[in-house]
Amino acid sequence: VALHYVKSAMYDASDPILDIVFDAERGVLYTLSRASAVQMYYLGPDGEGFEFVMAKTAAQLCAAVPDRHANKAVALFEADIKKADEQAAKKPDEAELHCAIVALSPIPCALSHLLQLVLTTSSGVRVYVQTITTAERQGKQAKPIQFNPILALPPPVRATTAPKEPQSLPACMRGAVLSAGDVTLIASGLE
């Protein structure tokens, strides 16, 4: 049943799937559609189930980022959404080339119990998403019940051939999330 659904969603839909990522540690399948909508399916602890959990568009995810008004990354994410919408309207046949979200990457349990997925936008913004609340994490494969962006970081600093003076280096980007005894710290490579 799951394979039939995925095949039809990839080829027969008005908003086909462009990317599929399976998080084997948690038994979760994520899909990314042409319209930059992320869908989440729970396959169960044995990987044999196929239960739709929820879907969110890029605009919904962007609007849900905490501290969005003081965040440069959110402004870039909003620009990615606007640009993707404009390009898709101009050239509907090439809509696959102009998506706001371009990559999905599960975060291994060994790296974070708080964050489960990273979304990467076309400008390189990384949006860290939580799908399992801290209370539900009894075992490795707790059923996902939410899809909340926790943190958005701007694109990594580009490496240049010319060395930079210390006073001209951009301010370090840092982020932290604290939840029920778990701490997740994220810093740029400049430190």
List the helices and strands and how they pair.
Elements: H1 2-11, E1 17-23, E2 28-33, E3 37-42, E4 51-57, H2 58-63, H3 72-90, E5 101-106, E6 117-121, E7 126-130, E8 148-153, E9 174-179, E10 182-187
Antiparallel strand pairs: 1-2, 2-3, 3-4, 5-6, 6-7, 7-8, 9-10
Comma- or semicolon-separated keywords:
4-stranded antiparallel beta sheet; 191 residues; single chain
- Average pLDDT score: 78
**Portion of residues in helices?**
10-25%
Radius of gyration: 18 Å
Q: What is the H-and-E element order?
A: HEEEEHHEEEEEE
Number of helices: 3
Q: Looking across the biggest beta sheet, what order are the strands in? A: 1-2-3-4
The tally of beta strands, per DSSP, is 10
Terminal-residue CA separation: 49 Å
For the sheet with most strands, the description reads:
4 strands, antiparallel
Q: What share of the residues does DSSP label as strand, in percent?
A: 25-35%
Q: Describe the global form.
A: globular
